[in-house]
């Protein structure tokens, strides 16, 4: 994983802040492992957003409701995995974390190309705690649509 930060008078982010931001991924992995929508939503700020393909949720209540339903249906029995690939501090209390990973079905140990994602995590430090202000993921291997091409055959 690479880390970078703008030059600051203090010499950059503290190791504890770097670790706390990177640990947000493990908080999400743990919440998913227990299928715990409350803990999952608790990673987000009060105005935090979650964007997935075809989905936009804002605030812990919307995120919690979505994940509660997903853990009872689509994501029942699944696990999620992710690892940081880049971490940049944009300010002492704002960081951008990039990860890659995906959802594992029961019995899977590796994310298939079809399920692989890349994600952006905009993290903020509020009241001494790092939280997720915005999360967005997209398929890792799917190409962008060709402008002007029709999806009809």
What does this protein structure show overall?
With 153 residues, the chain is α/β, with parallel strands linked by helices. Helix content is 25%, strand content 41%. It is built from three helices and seven strands, in the order βααββαββββ. It has helices at 15-33, 37-41, 59-72, and strands at 2-4, 44-52, 55-58, 79-91, 94-104, 116-126, 129-139. It has a seven-stranded mixed beta sheet with strand order 1-4-5-6-7-2-3, covered by helices on one side. The longest helix has 19 residues, at 15-33. The chain is globular, with a radius of gyration of 17 Å. The chain starts with a strand and ends in a 14-residue tail after the last strand. Residues 1-9 have low confidence and may be disordered.
Mean pLDDT: 90
Gyration radius, in Å: 17 Å
What's the tally of helices?
Answer: 3
* Terminal-residue CA separation: 42 Å
Structural class: alpha/beta
Based on the model shown, name its key terms.
7 strands, disordered N terminus, 3 helices, 7-stranded mixed sheet, 153 residues, alpha/beta, globular
Characterize this entry briefly.
By secondary structure, this protein is an alpha/beta fold.
